[in-house]
Amino acid sequence: MIITKRTDFYLPSIKELATISFAQLQTDQQTIAHSLQGISKLKQTLATDKLKATFADLHRHSSTKYINNGSLTADYFAHAYASLADPHIYLVISNTGSNASEIISLFTQKQYNHASLSFDAELKTIISYNGGEKVYPPGLNAEMVEAFHKKADASVLIYRLATTRAQKQQIIDKVQEINTTGSAYNLLGLVTKHSYRPNIMFCSQFVYRMLKLAQLDYFDKPAGDVRPTDFIELDYYKKLDFCYEIKF
């Protein structure tokens, strides 16, 4: 349905253009304040030291070949398979304050810019696609909640999604396959929304693909377009249960 509304439009006079009332200033003060805050955030995010740290890390990444292999240990998978008795999978949405997430937030305009999966409520099996903390190559890696504390107001939201034992095992099996085959962080895909190889992904792309694999996806969107906050904002059918929040 297309609705066209035609109205007459007249260009404002020079006098009108040069005049602004105090009432208008009062009306717009919140918008002005928000814009100034945005400029301040942009300045902080694009500070020289942050940009240097981000670009210095680029050589560790690859958007065309697998560079991470076997970072998840046999002990990790022992814990993962032990969690099959729990009929839930856990989505972890975090506001970490890392240089990469702060730059990503400039494009998403969202506070939370990282998504992870865990097979247990205590987050002993939390994983995602990340930079590897300069310990492992960028790609599929285990995570520690303590490592999310990169700024004073960092926070983590934990949700659970009901699943069958078979669905949960299917995801764990797939994670084990990726760990064996190899992976890489899809840094270029943040812009191009494209993966050159199946196991080259970014965090929210990985989480969405794992849910879709087990038919646990509850919204429809190309995996390359999924943002971390989509898992919360697009939960129209209330599939997620909020568990708890971690503040540092």
TrEMBL record:
This is Permuted papain-like amidase YaeF/Yiix C92 family enzyme.
